[in-house]
Structure formats: structure tokens, C-alpha cells
Amino acid sequence: MLSRFARFLRHERSGATAVEFAFLLPVLILVLVGIMQAGMLFFVQNNMARVAHDTARRVAVGELTTATGKTYAENQLVNWGVTFNVTVTEPGSDVSVVITVPMAEAAVLDIGDIFDVGDLGATAIVRQES
Length: 130
Hints:
Blueprint: H1 4-11, H2 16-60, H3 66-76, E1 85-89, E2 94-102, H4 103-106, E3 119-127
Antiparallel strand pairs: 1-2, 2-3
Helix pairs in contact: 2-3
């Protein structure tokens, strides 16, 4: 026969929510950080694509040369605090702008060195006006 105290403990659930929350909190934080990281990488890649297209367009219409186009693109991306590799070429009738950055540098939080492999890149090819 259970004593009165043992029956009380068997039906007491007031701390169950706190224990469940303590188990779930690290998972929720990890998901939140992952969403923020993916959003930031998408934002950086989108800005790289915008700058690549703008630079290619300016070189294609003759506003910039390939050398000044490279400098222009680097200056547009200077506020990120990472080193972007910019290549501007004019092979024939097209202008090609390629911007890359190592994934590890673009990542805000690199937990577990997940982003140490690969580059984040953007390419724009625009037909040169004659």
C-alpha cells in the first residue's frame, strides 16, 4: 500500500514542463542559429550577384574597363569585412564577372567547422554593346 506522500509524488507534474523545456531549448537554439546562418549566407550571395551584374553591365556599356570594373566591384563589397575574389573578363563579345569568397569567411557563426569547405560565388555574363 502506498503512503499518502508516495501517491502525491506519483501525480505531481509541476516540474515536467520545465524539464521538457530544458531538453528542447538547445535544439530550438540550434535551429534558430541555423536559420539565421542560412539567411545571412543567402543575403551575402544575393549582394554578390547584384554587384556582379551591375559591374558586368557597366563594363559592357563602356562605362568601366576590366581593371576599373574589378576595383568597382571590390569597393561595392568592402563593407562586409571579408576578402572577395573578383575577376572581370571580356572574352569576345561578352563581359564576365565572377565574385567568390571562401564559405568560412562568409559564415557568421562557423560552429563545428561546417563551412570550411567550398566557396560562395556569383557570376554575371552580359553581352557587350557595340
